[in-house]
């Protein structure tokens, strides 16, 4: 505990550093025990979530108890070779993760806003070209 307190006083971390790491390029058949073995060397882990759906296979989230442990793991494991695959380890950023919104979703959101504010979508459409 005293070591963690001493580390927090030694310097400031960049703003993107946090306790949650996003890991890409994992082997599809990696187990949670293997993940704990690899990432647990750098500190106490609160949670590991491995992607199992078609879109999330090969990815995982690793949550550390301490932000300095997460930074050390990110620094040491970026480019680490696991089963002939080089890991890509990034800090989780809520602003960019999971924002795969399609055109259909955006159009639906626009229609809801138009209805809410009483705006007719047609009046703001581009005028037809004159021939």
Automatic annotation (TrEMBL):
Record field: transmembrane: none
Main location: nucleus
CDD domains, A to Z: RRM_SF3B14
InterPro entries according to UniProt: Nucleotide-bd_a/b_plait_sf, RBD_domain_sf, RRM_dom, RRT5_SRSF_SR, SF3B6_RRM
Region (Disordered): 111-131
GO CC annotations, alphabetized: cytoplasm; nucleus
Tree of life domain: Eukaryota
GO BP terms: mRNA processing; RNA splicing
Keyword list, A-Z: mRNA processing, mRNA splicing, Nucleus, RNA-binding
Compartments in which it is found: Nucleus
GO molecular function, one term: mRNA binding
Name recorded for this polypeptide: RRM domain-containing protein
Domain RRM residues, every copy: 19-94
PROSITE patterns assigned to the protein according to its UniProt record, in alphabetical order: RRM
Originating organism: Chlamydomonas euryale
